[in-house]
Amino acid sequence: MASRVVDISPMAERFFVAFPDADAIRRGNVYARCRMIVLFDVSAELGALVLGTSNRTEILLGYGTLFGDLASSVNPLGELYKTEVRALAAHLGVPAAIREKAPSADLWVGQLDEDELGGSYEDFDRVLVRLVDGGQSPEAVAQAGFDAHFVHAVAERVRTNAYKGRIPLIAEVPPRVARATGTRE
């Protein structure tokens, strides 16, 4: 299978000429969106689909950039927790060097997902399975032996980032027939 490396730095850095004070998060988001511009353009060139790589853990925690790494034509991993993706990779024979690499969006030098998130993916997954799949309250999860502060922080992240896991909302307007005829139903 052929691969192609496309340097997105000139595209992203040209953008920052207009926004020189952008912080690391904003810069990382622009880089993520530039990657998707390139991927979707190559997909058009090849008549192919862009496969998503975000997993359930990242989506639930809001750890992704809208129209950046969260964008795709189809996402085969979107319903799998991070720990399940790792198990699948082991099952498929993905080399340990890849499976065990510290997760990073590589948005800046030294950036690691778990440092930014404030916990390990294993801990997040154990809590998320109880909160989301099990429908347990944060209090019930904490009573099961999990750190209450961590559980509440995870629940809050899920709540505030839920919009990232949905297709964009479309504003509702009156039915087209009523608009076209000037009548109201």
For the structure shown, list the relevant keywords.
0% strand, Rossmann fold, mainly alpha, 185 residues
Brief rundown of the structure:
The chain is 51% helix and 0% strand. It has 185 residues and is mostly helical.
**Rounded average pLDDT:** 92
The helicity comes to 40-55%
Helix/strand-derived category reads mainly alpha
**How many strand segments?**
0
What's the domain count?
1
CATH fold description: Rossmann fold
Kindly estimate the percentage of residues that lie in beta strands according to DSSP. Answer: under 5%
Top-tier CATH class? Alpha Beta
List low-pLDDT spans: none
Q: What oligomeric arrangement do these chains adopt?
A: single chain
The termini sit apart by: 57 Å
Apparent shape: globular
**CATH homologous superfamily heading:** HUPs
**Proper CATH architecture:** 3-Layer(aba) Sandwich
Number of helices: 10
Report the radius of gyration as a whole number of Å.
20 Å
Description:
With 185 residues, this protein is mainly α. It has one domain (23-163): 3-Layer(aba) Sandwich (Rossmann fold). It is 51% helix and 0% strand. It has 10 helices and no strands. The longest helix has 23 residues, at 24-46. The chain starts with 8 loop residues before the first helix and ends with a helix.
